[in-house]
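User: We ran a pulldown and think these components assemble together. Before we commit to crystallization trials, I'd like a predicted model of the whole complex to look at. Sequences follow.
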Amino acid sequence: MRGNLSRQTAEKLYRMIVAEGWLEPGDKLPNEMELSKELGVSRATLREAIQALTMQGVLEVHRGRGTFVSRQVGEVEDFGFGTLDGVRGKLRDLFELRAMFEPRVAALACARASGEEMMEILELGRQTEACIREGRDRTQADRDFHAAIVRATHNEFMMRLLPIIGQAVETAIVSGEHAEKLAQDTLRDHALLMEFFEKRDPAGAEHAMAIHMLHAMEEMGLEK
Amino acid sequence: MRGNLSRQTAEKLYRMIVAEGWLEPGDKLPNEMELSKELGVSRATLREAIQALTMQGVLEVHRGRGTFVSRQVGEVEDFGFGTLDGVRGKLRDLFELRAMFEPRVAALACARASGEEMMEILELGRQTEACIREGRDRTQADRDFHAAIVRATHNEFMMRLLPIIGQAVETAIVSGEHAEKLAQDTLRDHALLMEFFEKRDPAGAEHAMAIHMLHAMEEMGLEK
DNA sequence: TTGCAAGAGTTGTCTGACAACTCTTAACAT
DNA sequence: ATGTTAAGAGTTGTCAGACAACTCTTGCAA
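Assistant: Here's a predicted model for the assembly, 448 residues in total across the polymer chains.
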């Protein structure tokens, strides 16, 4: 099994709640003593798992009263249709946001980048491609690539916002195994993107980035 | 003080790291024994705080090695909570963000809003118009209007962006002499927007909102 | 030089205890 | 009869100490 015991416990609890209909939204969980015995972990470990689920909005803890399944859980299920996750619902939201910003950001960057910045963008793009070809981990290179593009917009808020979205997407992706399929599309998309950047064609860059986003969403089974 | 001790500890740690320059991104924290003594809490409480910050992307924990400040801390800053200050000078950046955001949001909302949500949007739009006509302060009404639209996208992360966007709106409206002409444009733009919302025409709503954004930026002397 | 083992440093988990909070219920005063 | 208070049960919050598991370095031996 992967990860901490508290991590595993959180996932187990999550499955019990949302996948199987063990508890309905609004229901109260057994108290921590009983639940920890039932799950075969210590109370401390269970508490860490509960905290994680609380931060994900799955559970609500009220001191002196108990721990409850959040009413929001049901709503998340409606969207993503699915058994596997609230993660999928969140993933769709994230990509939707990303698909909104990245193409326009690419266009702006293409129009505003200084000579130096453009060179950096192209260089980082090449590095990312190299990583994919050689089968190395492209996470860092890809992040740097997108960060360089965002930086070239000279827009402070974009620079703050997009890394956050990117990071969230990343953690979501790591929890699945879509990375393999994505790599091939990414290679093609990047080539397209680089072409328009080299030509300094904002409209082209915008469309190329939009295609990149659509490919990513398609591969992950997310619908527009 | 508010909240759990672990909550407080998390916030205290957060402030020490991002606000004051106690540690740089990538630095290693003292081990849990020392740190818990230094902060005056038990190790269990400290661990809950650390876990919370880990899930926010502020810290990274590596078993057997230690706990480190994430390299992305600087970027994560103002997202979840935390007030956005020094906004005034960055009006262009904010509106640029908004100009990307709002039109697509309008389109999504138009396509996804439930009957109830659509009624709320239209009602709030009418209220805003009324405010303008009667010369009353329309800040709150306008904010509610846009908030209702964002809510109708059913996208959690868009809603999280709302407070940031809201500040831009507020600053823009408060900033004085533009208010007069802006009000007239807003009246026309809203009418256009409402027309397409009533028809449930996403493309129309998107363009109408885009026009609204362009007018606002133009009136405020912001260049694209 | 290379490989391996021991050790120090660190986070992960367990156990048991008590404090603090919430809600119910029963006793009490009016 | 009614409103108020106090006690008690149920629950989460915090603490302390111990040991397990993992990571990296250092020194020794082949």
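Chain A has a mean pLDDT of 77. That may be worth checking against your pulldown data before setting up trials.

User: Thanks, that helps.
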